[in-house]
Amino acid sequence: MSFETVTVEKISQTIVTQIRKRLVDGELKPGESLPSELKLAEMFGVSRSSVRDAMQILESTGYINRRKKGGTTIRKVTFEDIANIYIPKAEKDALYDLLETREVLETSVVQFAIKRANEQDIDELEKTIDWMIEKPDQAAEADIVFHITLARISQNQVMLNIIKSLEEIMNKLQEKTIYYPGRIEEIVTEHKQIVAAIRTKDEKSAERYMRLHIQKIGDILEHV
Fold first, then answer.
1. Which one, of 141, 111, 113, lies nearest residue 127 by Cα?
2. More confident: 49 or 13
3. At 67, phi and psi to the nearest 5?
């Protein structure tokens, strides 16, 4: 096991970031013990107090278990942990990563939704569209509910969990794009196209409309 020497501000948070990434990448396994605080301080090239602060953050956020006599062990990672992991990139770059992920994931979601949706499911999707039209000040929330509803309709629990776990960073994306001039009206149209394709079981159109919907967000992100 090796770590990079810390040379940036907020030392404890940088240590947290490195450990979380190694956990998500599989270099650290659930149940595995971490070295002592003294050893970690040597590995990171920082003071022991910085390591202690980092361990407190990791414990409070559920990544590790600390015992007085049993040392420090890694806990199991959830989908939410993976989605919320700090990425050392500019915020806009991280949002583009989100869009790439959503394009891959949600084009598959609509394919499953077409095969498994019933009339009640489609009615629920249409209600989220009506919500956005009637209460444009709640458009960001309505949009996220639309996509979570789609994932639920897919009846794929893994996809649903991933979409739910992305909600926090999706909110950040919405803050930057959804109130761009004319965007709410565009989303309403795009959502209607997706729902119409699901209703008629037009898989190719549903996938194309979803891809265009997400790519449009990327286009707007370039200008904000």
1. 141
2. 49
3. -125, 145
Long-range contacts of 26-32 (CB under 8 A, 24+ apart): 27/1, 28/1, 28/74, 29/74, 30/74, 30/75, 30/76, 30/77, 31/73, 31/74, 32/73, 32/74
Q: Is the dihedral of CA 92, 174, 186, 150 positive or negative?
A: positive
* Model confidence at 189: pLDDT above 50: yes
Which residue type sits at 54? A
- Mean per-residue pLDDT, 182-188: 96
Given this model, what pLDDT does residue 88 score? 45
Q: What is the pLDDT of residues 19-37, one digit of tens each?
A: 888 877 778 888 888 998 8
More confident residue, 98 or 8: 98
**Residue 139 · residue 132 · CB < 8 Å:** yes
Q: Are 117 and 197 in contact (CB under 8 A)?
A: no
- Phi, psi for residue 173 in degrees, rounded to 5: -65, -40
Helices (H), 45-138: 48-60, 79-84, 91-116, 119-134
